[in-house]
Each structure stands twice: as structure tokens, then as C-alpha cells.
Design goal:
Blueprint: H1 3-11, E1 21-25, H2 30-41, E2 45-50, H3 53-65, E3 70-74, H4 80-93, E4 100-103, H5 118-146, E5 149-154, H6 167-186, E6 192-197, H7 205-209
Parallel strand pairs: 1-2, 1-4, 2-3, 4-5, 5-6
Helix pairs in contact: 4-5, 5-6
Bound molecules: NADP nicotinamide-adenine-dinucleotide phosphate.
Length: about 210
């Protein structure tokens, strides 16, 4: 029995996402990878992206072997042009409709506030905040067209309290928390729910690389 069938059987049909479409940014490692497998395990058809083509292709092959329906393409989510291309690809792959957008991509450079350069400020804000803001704008027509849309931001506890993660990262996540509140009200009329998840430290490559 394929892993996807086994997971569906264990979870039961009550929680099925069969027929749903999802875009998960940054799905090749860490939290995004786990989210791709969870959504696909519930029966959703998933599209993902990352910057490393070899790693992306390896993941896609592994998911195919597990019986998951996952596709994807290379995209640097911090690039405006590449975000536009990604959403065009998603629109064509899912016939203009998207149920779930998981805004997962994020990065960090941890330093004392006085040591950040302008370039580092711009890198963190464009990767963590501008990218998700723009992806929401681009995905809005697709989410609305699905008739049942859902946006989930991967924020952080750092956006709520001080945890020594660096002030730019914290501010970018706090901005996501407020954007969640705005969109949840503004886009409710379009049947789009907006939520965010704020994880505590999770052992992923992001955390390992900051040691
Ligand atoms: N780990 C934690 O403790 C923790 C805690 C709270 C919140 N979070 C948040 O959770 C999210 C995921 O973090 P993680 O720890 O799972 O990170 P991770 O292990 O570094 O994985 C990040 C994933 O996103 C991709 N990615 C990174 N930058 C990208 C870009 N510019 N464009 C496209 N893809 C990109 C990576 O692939 P490529 O590098 O190949 O592009 C990888 O697949 C982030 O928003 C992070 O802030 C993490």
C-alpha cells in the first residue's frame, strides 16, 4: 500500500483534503517539507518551490514514490519576477484555482541591531515580508476563484516576544502577524480564511545553519 493511502486510512476520511489544491513555498526542507507531506497525506494536490533545483527534483521523486501528488518549480521567493512566474505556473497547473497558500519561506541573519547593514535589512524584509505580501496579492484571484480559500503564514514566536533571534527577523514576523489580522477581515468576503502559525525553535536547516 502506498504511504499516502496508508496515511489516509489511518486518519480516516473525516479529515480528507482530496480535491483541494495547495501551494507551499519552500517545501524541500524543514517545516515546509513537513507541511507538503501532511497536505499530500490528506489527499491534497500540492505545488511547491525552492531555489535549489537538484534538491527540489530529489524531493519530487521521493514524494512520487510515496504516492503523493506533488509538483513544483524553481523560484527564489525574494524576487518579484520569479514570484510572478511561480503564480503563473501554479495558475496553469491548477486551472486558475487555489484552495491553500502556505507562505512558509523565511530566513534569518542573527546579529546585534547596531551591526546590521542596509543590505541585510533589505534581504530579510524582502524574503520574509515583501515576498509573502506580494504572493498574497498574486494568489488572491486564484484563492477567490476556488470558492474556499485559505492562507497560512509561517510566522514565529519571535514576532510576538523577544527571543534573541535578531530584531529584523522579529519585526518581519510581527508584520506578518498584523497582515494576518488585516487579510482575515478584508478577504473574508471572498471566502478566504487567513491564519498564521508561530512556531518556537524547531530543529531545521535554518536553525542548524545559525549555530
Ligand atoms: N526552524 C525554526 O526554529 C523556526 C521557528 C519559527 C519560525 N520558523 C519559520 O518557518 C519557516 C520555515 O523555516 P525552516 O526552519 O523550515 O527553514 P529551512 O530549514 O531553512 O527551510 C527553508 C525552505 O525554504 C526554501 N527557501 C529558503 N529561502 C527561499 C527563497 N528565497 N525562495 C524559495 N525558497 C526558499 C529552502 O530551500 P532553498 O534554500 O533551496 O531555496 C527550504 O526548502 C520560515 O518562515 C521560518 O522563519 C522557523
Amino acid at each position: 500500500m502506498a504511504e499516502s493511502d496508508l496515511i489516509s486510512k489511518v486518519r480516516g476520511s473525516k479529515w480528507s483534503l482530496k480535491g483541494m489544491t495547495a501551494l507551499v513555498t519552500g517545501g524541500t526542507r524543514g517545516i515546509g517539507h513537513a507541511v507538503v507531506e501532511d497536505l499530500a497525506g490528506f489527499g491534497a494536490s500540492v505545488y511547491t518551490c525552492s531555489r535549489n533545483e537538484a534538491e527540489l527534483n530529489k524531493c519530487l521523486k521521493e514524494w512520487e514514490g510515496k504516492g503523493f501528488v506533488v509538483s513544483g518549480s524553481v523560484c527564489d521567493a525574494s524576487s518579484r519576477d520569479q514570484r510572478e512566474k511561480l503564480i503563473q505556473e501554479v495558475a496553469s497547473f491548477f486551472n486558475g484555482k487555489l484552495n491553500i497558500l502556505i507562505n512558509n519561506v523565511g530566513t534569518n541573519i542573527r546579529k546585534p541591531t547596531n551591526e546590521y547593514t542596509t543590505e541585510e535589512f533589505l534581504t530579510l524584509m524582502s524574503t520574509n515580508f515583501e515576498s509573502v505580501y506580494h504572493l498574497c496579492q498574486l494568489a488572491h484571484p486564484l484563492l477567490k476563484a476556488s470558492g474556499m480559500g485559505s492562507i497560512v503564514f509561517i510566522s514565529s514566536v519571535a514576532g510576538v516576544v523577544h527571543i534573541g533571534s535578531g530584531s529584523i527577523y522579529a519585526a518581519s514576523k510581527a508584520a506578518i502577524n498584523q497582515l494576518t489580522k488585516n487579510l482575515s477581515c478584508e478577504w473574508a468576503k471572498d471566502n478566504i480564511r487567513t491564519n498564521c502559525v508561530a512556531p518556537w525553535y524547531t530543529k531545521t536547516s535554518l536553525v542548524e545553519n545559525m549555530k
